[in-house]
Design brief:
exocytosis; six-stranded mixed β-sheet; 61 strands; alpha+beta; V_SNARE_CC; 15% helix; cytoplasm
Length: 1107
């Protein structure tokens, strides 16, 4: 049937590479600009955690400079640092939309979560050894290797992070605390004391010294250390088993005077108790209550000053690397859960220890209510407490545990209660494991492909309904069914109800367990569409659960073909609105129809079992009726999907029986004679279909898709021994207008026959009749080139070379590296290029026709990935240059070209910072219900202002936004000075009546507390305000010098008295206005309090997304 259709032309005189190529210039103008548009999964190099309890976001830092941010509703983002270095510190600026990281090279980076980029960064000159963000603010404490404590501030408006003047060198700390610090003592821990608005900071040094420093008074409030430890006769509590044993210690005299600190945390809401972990495995609880600060350093020690906790009775224990605390409401601030990693015997099983502690009767009578040792799922990496800021209804806690490699588990208090009653059993059943939306390891993904969906009319409309994102339940995918997964952060792109949603891209993954999953990838937030698997009651098919090895989708009628390692081929219909009651099982000799219960949605219609060899390639013919399958044994089969039958199965394509690597199908159109064509006839009709077959040993064969006969006289292959990667058929679209045809001579030879009336007829052998060739069609077909991509080189063949079995290629390009995967991408009909992936992880973009290098990059620079074996099975690409990749636990969708920009539309990207939620929290009057600030630590005028904001009822609480502004202003005044330069004193801030500027009514009215009078502080402030005036109306006699000194005026006494009289009149007017304004503020405060109560009641019944 095809003899003269592929008649050999004269050999081309020159290769296309020797001609000017306009397409090459066009491609060169388009830069290789890869961008990670979609990323799912936690990297295996994950090492540290940070949690924003208000926004509900979790950040995971890695050892290679990446930060994974996880929210709710399948929202995930990957932030990539310019340098591939580990992060040693990672913290959120809570509810502000910023994340602060510190790299191993001591570069401090502030990430803008809204823009997903670095907003500001600063390189610290010395090694950073301690780092802490003052909660609720944008101020940061930083300690270094030389013992310096510095303060940094991030200015969101200026987008700049910079150090502030306030810093404490170690010699000033030693002077202010009355101790001696050895030279070059690094700070190993720094914590802002809670509930004191940042006034005090705890500094822990390498030698074990602990100093609680007051930044407002520039002095040490507490000084603790192992040299100061007086445990003779004190309490040592051993929690080595289920019961605690407390005994009096009398054997510490011979121990070392220094004890190196490895971790620390506050263990009380008010910052009065500090837990410190040491490298020898001990844990000390230090009492830093305010009452102790009045005793002095040389006063008599109390048994409640310090308690030692021992998790093991052994002599050699692991250092206590991590300490975290979660307060328990049931203990009223005198207990909670202490999380410790370490402190157990060396060589013991790796566990996370949780102690439920209570010291309501005094620290020396510390009790351990219970102990739980959590068995970890891998090596411990980090831990973070994940209690929500409104999680006040429970007496327990919840937390995340990160283990290597990249495993994240979530525990809640209810599961710990069960663990206490089931000690010794497997703890994994009580943990909710993070499961990526696109699983790649459990189950293991064996094949994955990305498909573009065109406009298929009604079929696409039904697909859009079946793939509607509103049908998804992301929480179930993330938590394995748990409804208490705490991550709810981020705002996804909302599809308008009036907007017609269409599916543009889908991703299909096949798994080792025989299942297939389909995702809608049209938006940057992916959604799971369907999970396919052959499970029909009453029908058993041997090998149905074998690993998936190949798949292909025919998008016009949404038919999906799936092949597995057992040689079975499943045919699924993805219309989504049909019912199927039968399943047809087809073999070479049998055709069985099985009846089953009707199923709605995606269903398996046909199962083909022709060969027992694994399926290696699947390809639908252009008509969609025929399906071509290539097998491991080197045979191919053509299946009729319409009649559910096997058309033919060939013998081995090559003598070597090499596996089939690639299949491609092309349709040969035929033309009718224009003289005989009527008006109703079409100009062309579909002709025979040709299958291009490539084997693993680089042999290429052409097969007639109708008969199974080989069109090639013999397989074509390079002379060198090669391992084939892929095969691409390049026609005039790919080669460009400027490239000359390789069959010019053949075109001239047949030009005289262009207007001849020729029809294609089949002979008995199935090969084409030589006289049945339309010359123009033959010219177009033979103008195509075959690009053979092998591991070591690229080869160009003409199509007639394949027909004749000619092994001579007309162009060869050696790339010097082992190629792993290739694809042809395009921007439009005039821009094409070849993307090449190498086993080294390098990526190249080359022009077609001459394969000139246009750009290069690497997986390491894009994703920080190393190339892995069988990674090519899960690499897929669309013609627009969007590449999908899988590596370990990670899945990524990367547009390679600058013009492949559909995922870069900012309006469709999910927002990582919820501004509506942030504003709602700032307006929540109940936010400080369980986070009261200790008013004595604030200056008098700040306390008075807070009291005014509270209103006349004690149960009403300070507005968070205004309270936060006050705290920030308070910290700004402290940190904007040098320590010991001008001691900060609020007593110097006298408010004089002459300093008041009374203006007309201000639009903002804040609530104020009604005057109660009678208190000593109020009397003092009243005395200052009225400058000693009283109810006695008798004027005070003053000298001329006193009047001049008071009012800063020179001259005679009469002039000074006149000016004083004018000021008194002005003061009386101001006092009258103040009295009137006070009454208005009191009325406004009452109204504000009533409105706040009503708003609070309404907000309790509403969710934040309904605001």
């Amino acid at each position: 049937m095809f003899a003269k259709l592929f008649q050999k032309p004269t050999h081309p005189q020159s290769s296309p590479s020797s001609q000017p190529d306009d397409t090459q210039q066009t491609m060169a103008s388009s830069k290789l600009a890869p961008l990670v548009a979609v990323h799912y999964g936690i990297p295996s190099t994950a090492s540290t955690l940070a949690f924003d309890p208000i926004q509900g976001l979790l950040a995971v830092g890695t050892l290679d400079g990446r930060i994974k941010v996880i929210g709710g509703d399948n929202i995930e983002a990957l932030l990539i640092s310019p340098t591939a270095l580990p992060f040693k510190y990672l913290e959120f600026l809570q509810n502000q939309g910023f994340l602060v990281s510190v790299s191993n090279e001591n570069e401090i980076q502030v990430w803008d979560l809204g823009m997903r980029c670095i907003s500001s960064k600063i390189k610290w000159e010395s090694t950073i050894t301690a780092f802490s963000v003052i909660s609720g603010t944008n101020y940061i404490y930083l300690g270094d290797e030389y013992g310096f404590l510095s303060v940094l501030k991030y200015d969101a408006e200026e987008k700049n992070i910079a150090p502030l003047p306030y810093h404490i060198p170690p010699n000033l700390v030693a002077e202010g605390s009355g101790i001696t610090l050895p030279d070059h003592q690094s700070i190993v821990g720094v914590l802002s004391q809670p509930c004191l608005s940042g006034n005090r900071v705890l500094i822990a040094y390498e030698n074990g010294s602990i100093i609680l420093w007051d930044v407002t008074q520039d002095r040490a409030v507490h000084v603790k250390g192992y040299g100061d430890l007086q445990l003779r006769g004190g309490a040592v509590v051993n929690f080595s088993d289920s019961e605690s044993h407390t005994h009096l210690n009398d054997s510490l005299d011979n121990e070392e005077t220094e004890k190196e600190i490895s971790s620390l945390c506050w263990v009380s809401p008010d910052g009065s108790i500090l837990a410190v972990g040491y490298v020898d495995g001990d844990i000390l609880l230090w009492n830093l209550s305010a009452s102790n600060s009045d005793k002095g350093q040389n006063s008599q020690k109390s048994p409640d000053d310090v308690v030692m906790i021992q998790l093991s009775s052994g002599d050699k224990k692991l250092p206590v690397i991590v300490l975290h605390w979660s307060s328990s409401k049931a203990h009223n601030g005198y207990g909670g859960q202490l999380f410790a990693y370490g402190g157990v015997d060396i060589g013991a099983e790796e566990v996370l220890t949780i102690l439920d502690l209570n010291w309501s009767s005094g620290l020396s009578r510390l009790k351990c209510i219970d102990r739980v040792d959590l068995t970890l799922h891998g090596s411990f990496a980090d831990l973070v407490i994940s209690n929500s800021y409104k999680a006040n209804h429970s007496n327990g806690t919840s937390f995340f545990v990160l283990t290597s490699p990249g495993q994240l588990h979530f525990y809640e208090y209810a599961s710990l209660s069960m663990l206490k009653s089931e000690r010794g059993k497997n703890h994994s059943m009580h943990a909710s494991q993070y499961n990526s939306l696109i699983p790649t390891v459990e189950p293991y993904m064996t094949v994955g492909k990305l498909y573009m969906m065109g406009s298929e009319g009604n079929v696409l409309g039904s697909l859009s309904k079946a793939f509607s994102p509103t049908k998804q339940h992301p929480d179930k995918m993330l938590t394995g069914g748990s409804a208490k997964w705490p991550l709810r952060g981020g705002v996804p792109y909302q599809i308008s109800t009036s907007e017609c949603y269409t599916v543009e891209r889908i991703y299909i993954g096949g798994y080792h367990d025989g299942s297939v999953r389909i995702w809608d990838t049209s938006l940057p937030v992916l959604s799971l569409v369907s999970v396919l698997g052959f499970e029909v009651k009453g029908i058993e098919v041997t090998g149905a659960s074998a690993p998936i090895s190949a798949l292909d989708l025919y998008s016009p009628n949404l038919t999906l073909a799936i092949g597995n390692e057992s040689g079975l081929i499943f045919l699924y219909q993805l219309q989504g609105n049909s019912y199927q009651a039968t399943v047809t099982i087809v073999t070479e000799t049998k055709h069985q129809v099985h009846h089953c219960l009707p199923q709605e949605g995606n269903y398996c219609s046909t199962i083909y079992s022709t060969l027992s060899s694994p399926v290696r390639a699947l390809r639908f013919a252009t008509s969609g009726v025929r399906l071509v399958a290539g097998f491991e044994c080197g045979q191919i089969a053509v299946l009729d999907t319409g009649s559910a039958s096997v058309i033919f199965v060939t013998d081995c394509i090559s003598i070597s029986k090499s596996p089939i690597t690639s299949l491609s199908v092309r349709t040969c159109p035929t033309y009718h004679n224009p003289a005989d064509k009527s008006d109703n006839e079409t100009e062309s009709a579909s002709g025979p279909e040709v299958v291009f077959v490539l084997t693993k040993d680089a042999q290429m064969v052409l097969v007639d898709c109708s008969t199974g006969n080989m069109i090639s006289s013999q397989p074509t292959h390079p002379k060198e021994k090669s391992i084939a990667i892929s095969m691409h058929i390049l026609d005039q679209r790919h080669l460009g207008e400027g490239s000359k045809s390789v069959s010019v001579t053949y075109s001239q030879h047949t030009e005289a026959q262009n207007e001849a009336s020729v029809f294609i007829h089949k002979n008995q052998s199935g090969l084409p009749n030589a006289k049945a060739v339309e010359s123009n069609f033959g010219h177009k077909m033979l103008a195509s080139q075959i690009l053979l991509c092998c591991e070591e080189a690229f080869y160009f063949y003409t199509l007639e070379s394949l027909i004749q079995g000619d092994n001579n290629y007309f162009n060869k390009i050696e790339h010097g590296k082992q190629c792993s995967w290739t694809t042809v991408i395009k921007r439009d009909a005039e821009r094409y290029g070849l993307v090449v992936f190498y086993q080294t992880g390098e990526i190249e973009l080359r022009s077609l026709s001459d394969l000139k290098l246009l750009g290069e990059n690497s997986l390491m620079s894009i994703l920080r990935w190393n190339f892995k074996n069988k990674m090519d099975k899960t690499i897929s690409a669309s013609e627009e240059g969007q590449i999908s990749l899988v590596n370990g636990c990670e899945f990524a969708l990367v547009p390679l070209m600058g013009y492949a920009d559909e995922f870069r539309t900012s309006k469709q990207l999910p927002c990582l910072h919820d501004k509506v939620l942030a504003a709602a929290v700032d307006a929540d009057v109940n936010y400080f219900q369980n986070q009261k600030k200790e008013e004595s630590a604030l200056p008098g005028f700040v306390n008075n202002l807070i009291k005014g904001l509270k209103g006349d009822k004690e149960e009403q609480h300070m507005n968070n936004a205004k309270g936060r502004e006050l705290v920030i202003a308070h910290l700004e005044s402290i940190f904007s000075r040098f320590p010991f330069s001008e001691p900060f004193s609020f007593e110097d801030l006298e408010l004089q009546i002459d300093d008041l500027d009374i203006e007309e009514p201000v639009p903002y009215v804040s609530s104020s507390q009604k005057s109660t009078g009678g208190s000593k502080d109020e009397a003092t402030e009243r005395h200052k305000l009225f400058e000693g005036s009283s109810t006695n109306t008798k004027p005070t006699v003053r000298t001329t010098e006193e009047i001049i000194a008071k009012y800063r005026n020179t001259g005679d006494a009469a002039g000074a008295a006149s000016q004083a009289r004018d000021k008194l009149m002005e003061r009386r007017e101001k006092l009258e206005k103040l009295s009137l304004r006070t009454e208005e503020l009191q009325n406004g405060a009452q109204n504000f309090a009533e409105m706040a109560n009503e708003l609070a009641k309404n907000m309790e019944k509403r969710k934040w997304w309904n605001i």
